[in-house]
């Protein structure tokens, strides 16, 4: 049984360590981080998984972003980063973190979610390539994926993804 908890302030550096371990050096230079600069994550949607000794083995954080759509500015949830310690990969932790996030985001009133990632992994959760939604460069448009938490939530929503101002 996988137990997920909300990340606390005390967990911050342990999660940072896990992200450093799981991602290539320079992860914070990724364009998606520019959308997170100076913006608080959605606390209720930042989750950690722990092993029996209490060490963090998986984590997910989520940020609000906006899309400057021709039909007005729209809110979206930017999912990630999500990471699972290499010794625990393939045990379903990543799926548990993502599915819990999507469930709680829907309950929390979020309509649409996007991320930058591998479609072959995220397709299983219902993510599809988003056409016309552009992340800050340099981002491969093939990796900009989205999912609707309310039917039609991405319909007609196109344009650049921008930082949610605090
Ligand atoms: C991606 C990640 C979070 C998945 O976590 P996980 O707990 O291992 O995932 P799950 O156990 O839920 O799923 C494992 C399955 O996903 C597959 N998978 C993992 N990463 C994948 C990828 N990038 N593309 C396609 N499939 C992938 C595995 O091969 C495995 O397949 P199987 O079920 O057929 O055996 C984890 O591998 C990780 O931390 N990777 C490094 C950081 C990273 O890339 N994060 C995502 C950024 S977009």
What can you tell me about this protein's structure?
The chain has 166 residues and is α+β, with helices and mostly antiparallel strands. It has a single domain (4-163), classed as Aminopeptidase (3-Layer(aba) Sandwich), CATH 3.40.630.30. It contains 4 helices and 9 strands, in the order βααβββαβαββββ. The chain has helices spanning 12-22, 31-34, 93-107, 119-122, and strands at 4-6, 47-50, 56-69, 72-84, 112-116, 128-129, 133-134, 144-148, 159-163. Strands 1, 2, 3, 4, 5, 6, 7, 8 and 9 form a 9-stranded mixed sheet that branches. β3 and β4 (72-84) form a beta hairpin. The protein is globular, with a radius of gyration of 15 Å. It binds coenzyme A. Coenzyme A (COA) binds at residues 22-23, 80, 82-84, 89-95, 117-118, 120-121.
Number of domains: 1
Ligand kinds: coenzyme A
The average pLDDT is 95
**Rg from alpha-carbon coordinates:** 15 Å
Q: What's the level 1 CATH class?
A: Alpha Beta
Beta-strand content: 25-35%
Element-by-element helix/strand order = EHHEEEHEHEEEE
């Amino acid at each position: 049984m996988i137990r997920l908890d909300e990340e606390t302030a005390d967990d911050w550096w342990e999660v940072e360590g896990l992200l450093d371990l799981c991602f290539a050096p320079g992860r914070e230079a990724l364009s998606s981080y520019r959308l997170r600069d100076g913006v608080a994550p959605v606390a209720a949607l930042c989750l950690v998984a722990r092993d029996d000794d209490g060490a963090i083995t998986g984590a997910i954080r989520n940020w609000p972003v906006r899309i400057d759509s021709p039909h007005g500015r729209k809110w979206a949830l930017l999912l990630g980063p999500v990471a699972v310690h290499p010794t625990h990969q393939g045990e379903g932790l990543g799926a548990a973190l993502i599915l819990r996030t999507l469930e709680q985001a829907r309950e929390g009133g979020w309509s649409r979610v996007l991320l930058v990632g591998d479609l072959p992994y995220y397709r299983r959760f219902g993510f599809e390539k988003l056409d016309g939604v552009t992340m800050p460069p340099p981002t491969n448009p093939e990796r900009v994926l989205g999912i609707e938490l309310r039917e039609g939530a991405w319909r007609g929503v196109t344009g650049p993804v921008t930082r949610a101002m605090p």
